[in-house]
Specification:
Length: 95
């Protein structure tokens, strides 16, 4: 049986974003013996409404905390503009 690392993540999840360095390490360390496959989920997969100011502020606090805890940078525009589920996923991919 072939070994494989399957990562299931959400581009809008701050902790999924923050774990990007650890995922890169896993891929670099074990990719030759266990290739990594990526599967995406979605917190707002079928949402069509932009986040209101209160929700955007709450989400931004989570992203700021994850940034401080992990050092992983992110694009603040993803939590300050009129972000809908269709635009947020374009801003929420690890760099």
């Amino acid at each position: 049986m072939e070994r494989q690392i399957i990562y299931i993540g959400d581009p809008m999840c701050s902790w999924c974003w923050g774990s990007a360095p650890a995922l890169k390490h896993l891929r670099d360390e074990f990719g030759a013996v266990a290739p990594m496959s990526l599967m995406l989920g979605g917190m707002r997969a079928f949402g069509t409404e932009p986040m209101d100011d209160a929700r955007r502020t709450a989400v931004r606090k989570h992203w700021d905390y994850v940034n401080r805890a992990t050092g992983q940078p992110f694009d603040p525009a993803s939590s300050t503009g009129k972000v809908s589920s269709s635009t947020a996923s374009r801003h929420a991919a690890p760099r």
